[in-house]
Amino acid sequence: MATPYDLIVIGTGTAAKVVIMRAQAANWRIAVVDFRPYGGTCALRGCDPKKMMIEGAKALDHTRRMQGKGLQGEVRIDWTELLRFKRGFTDPIPQKNERSFEDKGIDIFHGQARFTGPNSLEVDGHPLEAQHVLIASGAEPVMLGIPGEEHLIDNEDFLALEELPSRIVLVGGGYIAAEFSHLAARAGAQVTILQRGERMLKPFDPDLVDWLMDSFHNQGIDVRTRTNVEAIEKTAAGYSVRVSSKGETDTVEADLVIHAAGRIPALKALNLEAAGVETREGRLSLNEHLQSTSNPGVYAAGDAAQMGPPLTPVSSHDAKVVSAHLIDGKPARPDYAGVPSVAFTIPPIASAGLNETQAQEQGLRFRISSQRASDWFTARQAAEPVYGFKILIEEETECILGAHLVGPNVDEVINLFALAIRHRLTTTDLKTTMFAYPTGASDIGSMF
Length: 448
Ligand SMILES: Cc1cc2nc3c(=O)[nH]c(=O)nc-3n(C[C@H](O)[C@H](O)[C@H](O)COP(=O)(O)OP(=O)(O)OC[C@H]3O[C@@H](n4cnc5c(N)ncnc54)[C@H](O)[C@@H]3O)c2cc1C
Ligand SMILES: NC(=O)c1ccc[n+]([C@@H]2O[C@H](COP(=O)([O-])OP(=O)(O)OC[C@H]3O[C@@H](n4cnc5c(N)ncnc54)[C@H](O)[C@@H]3O)[C@@H](O)[C@H]2O)c1
Hints:
Belongs to the class-I pyridine nucleotide-disulfide oxidoreductase family. The structure is a single chain. The protein is α/β, with parallel strands linked by helices and 448 residues long. The chain folds into three domains: 3-141 and 264-326, FAD/NAD(P)-binding domain; 149-261, FAD/NAD(P)-binding domain (3-Layer(bba) Sandwich); 347-446, FAD/NAD-linked reductase, C-terminal dimerisation domain (Enolase-like, domain 1). It has helices at residues 14-25, 40-44, 47-65, 79-90, 93-103, 155-158, 175-186, 206-218, 272-275, 312-327, 356-361, 377-381, 410-422, 427-431; strands at 3-10, 30-34, 107-110, 113-117, 120-123, 126-135, 139-141, 167-171, 190-194, 222-224, 227-234, 239-245, 248-254, 256-259, 263-265, 279-280, 283-284, 298-300, 341-343, 349-353, 366-372, 388-394, 400-406. The strands form six sheets. Strands 1, 2, 3, 4, 5, 6 and 18 form a seven-stranded mixed sheet that branches. The protein has a five-stranded antiparallel sheet with strand order 19-20-23-22-21, with helices on both faces. Strands 10-9-8-14 form a four-stranded parallel sheet, with helices on one face. It is globular and about 65 Å long. The termini are far apart. 44% of the residues are buried.
């Protein structure tokens, strides 16, 4: 006889935790399931561990940029120590998570969750039943369908490497390739990026990406765009990656080949058919409340839902929408306006709101204020020539529609633009706000 719960949550990442806390506060009886250690992608295999390691690379980069400007002496990355620094943060997380759930009376299960009926699941043979199920199973690397793809390692493997090999190839040219290449190159690896698209970092403004490419070239990162990876072969010395580009074929030799070619909702293992949960083109069919259109007892949030961009603040936002609808009975729906996003390259690139194409498609009348600002104080004090912005401003209202930034501190400054976009602030609102000086934010008033 299965144990009846009010809610079963599949996953223990950002989306799962937000809903669990809300349901627990409402005295719901909850079971949570994960086949990996508890904590999710962001805390254990994504944002946080990556940021801790990139902080090391940033410190090294800054020291190098300041050589001859008051600093002397070489520094280098000790990969093993950097990994230990990261693990000091990540290692305790699963146990802390489990204990926190148990203290709140939440039943915890380890294993793959698999639907057996509309409101029933099994976890490694153990049956579970509930009135509601939240699919917060996140995303997984997309299958590439190429010979030898089993040789690829993923983000989890890379962030756990005890030693960094000397020749690294990244398949794909998005967020993961950009961030991991900047880290690995500063740690001494020879890095090649094989990107099918015509430029890197597609979600970011093309002009700003062009400016950022200087930082890839300065690190000796070999960025090959319009390059399709066709096969990966194991060799005596490592791997041979076969590529095609503009009708030509070539091979790139590597010690390690990393999957950086995109992630899709992790739904395969869930046996959704048994629950009558419909999907369309690999995505769950959800209504505006993130509820399955075919099984009203099932909700989804975060990367598994993929209604908004697959980012941590979106997972948390989705989870609040689900909680409001499912637990509080409110007509909540997601609002993805002005979601800020940062690729933590060195320096970072950031965006919030609309890009030029989206603003045009929406028929908006807008002007663009854009400049490469290598000679501004913010760039000079950081000895970082990559600095620039592109701001989209609505003609009639002077509201900020979109902000695109690259350079020192933009990973923080973008949040002020996200605030402006979401709350329809105008250029006058921003120009008449006093920002602490000298900071990245104190440039905002000069950006339009
Ligand atoms: C390398 C990397 C770096 C990133 N950096 C950033 C960043 O800097 N900023 C940012 O905003 N976003 C970043 N992201 C994206 C961000 O991590 C995700 O958007 C976010 O973590 C998704 O949270 P989630 O709760 O939806 O899913 P997850 O945190 O992925 O949780 C899903 C959980 O479900 C479990 N699960 C899956 N299937 C099953 C099953 N059948 N049974 C049981 N359990 C299951 C998984 O093991 C996992 O623990 C990064 C992603 C990666 C890969
Ligand atoms: N800082 C952050 O917020 C951050 C960091 C890392 C990851 N993430 C999240 O994780 C997701 C996955 O990241 P990602 O970098 O794997 O994906 P991505 O979607 O950012 O980029 C994948 C790229 O790989 C290319 N590609 C696909 N197949 C290819 C092939 N066979 N050969 C060559 N190129 C190929 C695509 O053209 C695309 O540009 C992102 O969408 C993002 O939401 C976020």
